Amino acid sequence: MFPRPRGLRTRLVVAFALVAALTAATTGALSFREARTGVLQQSQDTVIKLLRTQVDRLAPQLSFPPGEAELRRFAADVARAEPSGNWRVLVAYEGLSATSLPDDSFDELTPGLREAVDTSPATVFQRVNTGDHTSLVVGMSVTFAGEENRGIASGVQVFLTVPQATEQRYVDALVTAVERATVPALGVAVLLALLAARGVLRPVRALRHATRSIAEGRLDTRLAVNGSDELADLSHTFNETAAALEESVAELRGMEARARRFAADVSHELRTPLAAMAAVTDVLDEDAARLDPDTATAVRLISEETVKLARLVDDLMEISRFDAGAAVLHLDEIDLAESLRRTLADRAWAGLVDADLPPPDAVRGRVDPRRLDVVVANLVGNALRHGARPVRLRLRAGGERSAVIEVLDSGPGIPEDVLPHVFERFYKSDTARTRTEGSGLGLAITAENVRVHGGSVRAANRPEGGAVFTVELPLRRDEPARGEHL
């Protein structure tokens, strides 16, 4: 099996070449057949006409019944009608026969032709292939020429064989001419195919570049529309689609920008009253023990909700900074294992989490300590809230310039339909672990903090049960300490 051409240019060239080859072959075959028929017909008609003329001229000289010598003389006289001497003649009368050449076996004469002459007064002919050449064999009955017996068969039969070497040369010349004409025809077809392919591929290539440009974000890309064919319609449709897409994206971007600005503005405006509420709830918490039970419960509930609201506002402010591209990296070379121990200790998680950390200074790198603390705290807190103990925190070197942090829990794991969405903002699923009072931004903030470091974070389920979150951070060691806006 031949491989199927894949490129449009190749397919067009192959199609044109096949059509040209088929057309050339068909035209050549038809032309050859007609020319060959014409050549052979003309030769045949000439031979038959000349033979009949010669027989009609010599037949009155025959005496009846003719003897063998007279038949031989008659055959020789008929053969001399052709000046080149290519005719061989056989004359037969009842049981006698004679040929124009001595001892000529006249092998070309077939029983079918002899039978046709016996049964039909018309002149009959047959082309016989005798190995290396083709011969024309003609047979006819000699009729009386007198007034009383005109048209009556005399019983004398004349058979003629003549080689068709000249006609064969004409046919061979025709074959050569057809073959020579086919090659230029194929060449012209390939040239036309290349020109056609060029005309077709130019707008297709422009469409490909324009599509790629659209995919890269240049939504103002448009195609030049030339002509009124299907390709022009395609270019026009592409321009309309690109214009509609640009308008839709611009509208979406405007809505997104307004939504981000709204969230940032609301978060900023809420911070001042929240600070005042937090100060009041702190005072109320101190006096809650001296209040009646119902009032104390209400005070504690207000305090807890105020803390949650403050955390939500802080998360919204953090997300707003990421959206605005104002997140800043303050890099410092630290011992990552020590940083992770401090994160657990600061939140009183040391007894709740199994820490599998390398020795001091085994994994060092330039990272933002505050953002690393946020990443680890969010992942460990997420495992403690949604998973089940034991929860394990592991740190290892992922290579010379990377570190891998893993947080594993022993809970029910994450449903497969939820896994692709765990890092999306505000995403919650009723079937995903235990419902909590979180803001829905913790894992999104974690992913953003990892991203600004140039790292990656992913979530998966462990074969033995539970979820695992894996963070891979590049470790920068040769850069000076500085702040980076991302």
UniProtKB/TrEMBL annotation:
EC number from the UniProt entry: 2.7.13.3
Record's signal peptide: 1-29
SUPFAM superfamilies named among the record's database cross-references: ATPase domain of HSP90 chaperone/DNA topoisomerase II/histidine kinase, HAMP domain-like, Homodimeric domain of signal transducing histidine kinase
Catalytic activity reported: ATP + protein L-histidine = ADP + protein N-phospho-L-histidine
Name of the protein: histidine kinase
Domain HAMP residue range list: 198-250
Native source organism of the sequence: Streptomyces purpurascens
Subcellular location field: Cell membrane
A single MF term (Gene Ontology): ATP binding
Pfam families associated with the record: HAMP, HATPase_c, HisKA
Broad class of where this protein is predominantly found: membrane
Catalytic class of the enzyme: transferase
Keyword annotations of the record: ATP-binding, Kinase, Membrane, Nucleotide-binding, Phosphoprotein, Signal, Transferase, Transmembrane, Transmembrane helix, Two-component regulatory system
Domain Histidine kinase: 265-477
Taxonomic lineage: Bacteria, Bacillati, Actinomycetota, Actinomycetes, Kitasatosporales
